[in-house]
What we know:
Layout: H1 3-21, H2 24-49, H3 57-99, E1 101-114, E2 124-139, E3 142-152, E4 158-169, E5 179-187, H4 208-213, E6 218-228, E7 231-239, E8 259-269, E9 272-283, E10 286-288, E11 291-293, E12 296-308, E13 315-326, E14 340-352, E15 357-367, E16 377-389, E17 392-403, H5 407-410, E18 414-425
Antiparallel strand pairs: 1-2, 1-18, 2-3, 3-4, 4-5, 5-6, 6-7, 7-8, 8-9, 9-12, 10-11, 12-13, 13-14, 14-15, 15-16, 16-17, 17-18
Helix pairs in contact: 1-3, 2-3
Amino acid sequence: MSRPRALALVVPFLLIATAQAQSPDQRAELNSLRAAAEAKTKEIGKLAQSGQLPTSDEALKLLQQMVDELKQIRERLNALEEKVSGNQKATDRAIQAVSRVRWGGYLQYQYQDTDRLGFSQFDAFRFRRVRIGLEADVSPRLAGRVSFDLATGTNQTQEQLRDAWIVYDVSGGAKLGRDRAYFGQMALPLGYELERSSADRELPERSQYNQILFPTERSRGVKIRREGRDGLFQAAVMNALTINDPEQANLAPGPGNKLAGMAQARYVKGNTSVGASYFGGDRPDYAAGGAVSPEVKRQFAYLDFEQRAFLLPRLTIRGELMRGNDRLPSATAAVDKVDRPMAGYHLMGAYQLSSLDRLAFRWEHFDPNLDAGGNALHGLGLAYIRELTPQSRVTFAHEIFVDQARASTFGQTRYGLTTLRLQLRF
């Protein structure tokens, strides 16, 4: 949300504060005291000009009485003016504080249908995301962000904290600059898709391997970020599991005291962006239903790229390649749930049909166990995006998936997913 909109939310409160700074009663008293002081000063002037002061004791007593009365009027007037001035300064400070806070968010409402067996959402309307957040500049070198999703859970009626971080400029400049340190809950600096906002994505959801391995895309820890002329570098130490990982959800943070290290380097030049990322840590052992899944290695390497104006001025392509080692996150436990070598990738293109219309496609693949066959997942998606206004858009997408791992459980490997989504930014 823009700063004028944020200010609009608090204008009524500021008007009240301003009114309190100088209420009608106070204004009336100020005017009365000023008039009385002016009148008393004129009376003293007339008495001084009368010529009676040197020869009349009564005139001197009257003068002293007038001076005392004027002094009392001035003391009351000064006190009232100081009070009004103090209230006005407090109001000005409140306005300045509000101007440092930026509100924003977006809402995604959609209709979705699928023929996927065993899936809970069939032919249904729902909220996908209701994100509300604020950022505040506490000082020229210190800022923070908090955001919530108000449409989580099975029926999208629960709230969840998404972002909660503090950023400090460590570059020594007068304002937030190229070198920053982040503390709190934030998106993982891994690949390009995890840090990219869901409000900007062309297809309805992230690639399957990112959804499965890093649900909610966020963990807690410390991250440093260095921005240069031709790219950036990031390094982080965070809890090894994301906040909604099935083996982390509903548990205290950091089970098994396991942390993970992450690093990312990105080269950006003109229409080209190329990034390389690494994640290394351990997935702790997990107990459920009287069984225990063992501790395993959790390591990933990502390569990603973006090329705008690829072959055609209006065509942008993005891609990501993942190679890793982990077990599939699961709320159930078993001794044979060990780590496996895995790989995933996706290629996505977006073509700008007009200033308001885009067409996008994505081809994706995820193999959760390279040592065994018959468990790979393939996906192909097509989406049409129409910008209704600068703050709203509608997306129509259809995706086809082939999941070989579903053959034994559901007797179904191929299914479709259709999404019609309306998005509003605010």
